[in-house]
Amino acid sequence: MTMYELATVIRSKNAGPFTLTIDLIFASEADLDRAMSSPTLTHAGMAELYGVAPESVAIHELRPACAMKISLPRGIPSGSVGDQDVYGSQQHMPIAGISV
Predict the structure, then answer these.
(1) Tens of pLDDT along 24-64?
(2) Hey, what's the torsion of the CAs at 44, 48, 51, 56, to 10 degrees?
(3) For the purposes of burial, counting CB atoms within 10 Å of the CB of 92, is it exposed (0-12), middle (13-18) or buried (19 or more)?
(4) In this structure, what CATH number is given to the domain that contains residue 11?
(5) Number of domains in the chain
(6) Cβ distance 24 to 2 under 8 Å?
(7) Which of 19, 58, 65, 92 lies 20 to 30 angstroms, CA to CA, from 48?
(8) In degrees, to the nearest 5, what angle opens at C-alpha 36 toward C-alphas 31 and 41?
(9) In sequence order, what DSSP letters do the residues of 8-33 get, joined into one string?
(10) What does the DSSP 8-state code read for residue 55?
(11) What is the DSSP letter of 2?
């Protein structure tokens, strides 16, 4: 099963010009637990997937909302020359395809 199939909501957006945040919302705590047990949804896994340092990745579990939030640095600041996604709204796609 992929994250796309498991999560109810997968979205990304800017958290300022230098940081990207990815929200994953699930239908149940069981689905959240399944996602949290994925070896890719770790600091090291997200760092490898997005090409950043593991210590720059923040992962927050929001159990009452059956959700998790991942924050990491943008490769290029929002709006800079070479930025192809000014709002960061397309950056969730690498996570959508991971196996969980």
Answers:
(1) 999 999 999 999 999 889 999 999 999 999 999 999 999 99
(2) -10
(3) buried
(4) 3.30.980
(5) 1
(6) no
(7) 65
(8) 125
(9) SEEEEEESSSSEEEEEEE-SSHHHHH
(10) G
(11) B
